Amino acid sequence: MGWSEDDKRAKLRGVPMNGHDVRAPVSPGDILAGKYRVDRVLGVGGMGIVVAATHEALDQKVAIKFLLPTMVENGDLVRRFLREGRAAGKLKSEHVAKVIDVGRLENGSPYMVLEYLEGRDLSEVLKDEGPLPVALAVRFILQAIEAVAEAHANKLIHRDIKPQNLFLTHRVNGDPLVKVLDFGISKALEEASAEFALTRSQSLLGSPLYMSPEQMRSSRAVDERSDVWSLGVLLHELLTARHPFESDTIPGLVFQVTMEDPTPIRTHRADVDPGIELVIARCLQKKADDRYANVAELAKDLEPFGGDAVRGLAASIAAVLKPNGARSAFASFSDISGVSDNPLAPTLDAKSDPDLARQLEQSASRSREIAAKREGTPEVAKEPVGAASAWGGTQSGAAPPRRPLSVSYTHLTLPTSDLV
Q1: What's the CA angle centered on 214, arms 247 and 180, to 5 degrees?
Q2: Are the C-beta atoms of 61 and 74 separated by less than 8 Å?
């Protein structure tokens, strides 16, 4: 469900679109906090809106993120949005999109000021270029891991790693630079209340494709190994433009993630080294204890496939991560925000959505029936297909279909590329 041309024009005028109130709480020319001049709207998502602005004293471009007007009505969500912005602002890695400032407008609407980035997110890269060369994909993943490692070292778990949250820009010398977006922000934006159940479902559509089995069951049950799962899914996608689990419905996806083996990457792309396939397979183990214990271990196994450009990066990641002790020391969102529960993290708990709860229960019943009857999972038939890429390099075979990946929520289907 993409925006129509009329919707896009309406977005710039600041009026409702598609039946949802997505009006920006500011207008072009407004001055925020006495220093940020609003320039234009950059994007709108299920929960937030992002505008480009200029720091007048420094003549510096910034991006400012707001909650949508309907979300501002939830006072607890507003407080968590601001707390999470402050937590994200503590991360210093060059691979983290910097949070510069947080504050409130006069009407109480919160905002978050971030560094302005020029480039594309990795979902756009995949759409434009198709599957990436192995060394380049590994390079992007390792850069993302360095950011994730710093978050883990600070007892923060991202929980929403996906192509839309990895932004490809460039260093001054032209080298590619991946920035991880929404550290701590995604946890505060994915669920509001029963009143906003439909909006929440829209915003979640991009996330279940990358959720670990334990996160689908409960956001409170996750630790750093849930991010390891998401990184494995992401690497598979960067190399094939496909997902290891694909379904047209959320219940079908939940069943695959929790019960089925992932499609081996060499089924979609025959030229991938078997070692890469083993790394992804370990990331996607159903039991968290069977995955990499931390991202430093993952980086160590990936580095040999990234070429000279990533040499020594695994050691740097290990130094950033440092020993963290027991996993119980990891902060949940409740530790950060001072509340007793964690209802705002991305999850499929469906506490506020009866329709989704019913579908998930049907999927769970089907899973139990099949698990009771079958003795093993049938082997997936392999049809090796190479991956032609606009990034260059010799790769055998034809590229797999580059169709928009989407999942359905009852009558609603939203391509992941439409999410912000």
Answers
A1: 80
A2: no
Report how far residue 132's alpha carbon sits from residue 141's, in angstroms, rounded to the nearest whole number: 12
Cβ-defined contacts of 295-299 (< 8 Å, 24+): 295/145, 295/148, 295/149, 295/152, 295/224, 295/227, 295/228, 295/231, 295/321, 296/149, 296/321, 298/145, 298/228, 298/231, 299/142, 299/145, 299/149
CA distances from 113 to 41, 99, 105, 129, 150 (A): 14, 6, 12, 30, 21
Query: Which pLDDT score is estimated for 228?
Result: 97
Q: What are phi and psi of 361, to 5 degrees?
A: -65, -40
Q: How far apart are CA 218 and CA 175, in angstroms?
A: 39
Whether residue 59 lies in the annotated active site: no
Report H helices in 190-289: 197-204, 213-217, 224-240, 250-259, 265-268, 274-283
Model pLDDT for residues 341-366, shown as the tens digit of each residue:
333 344 454 444 555 556 656 665 66
Looking from the CA of 54 toward its CB, the CA atoms found within 13 Å total: 9
Rounded to 5°, the CA angle 328-329-335 comes to 100
Catalytic-labelled residue, pool 7, 39, 121, 160 = 160
**pLDDT tens digits for 140-180?**
999 999 999 999 998 888 888 999 999 999 999 999 999 99
Buried b (16+ CB within 10 A) or exposed e, 125-140: bbbebbbbbbbbbbbb
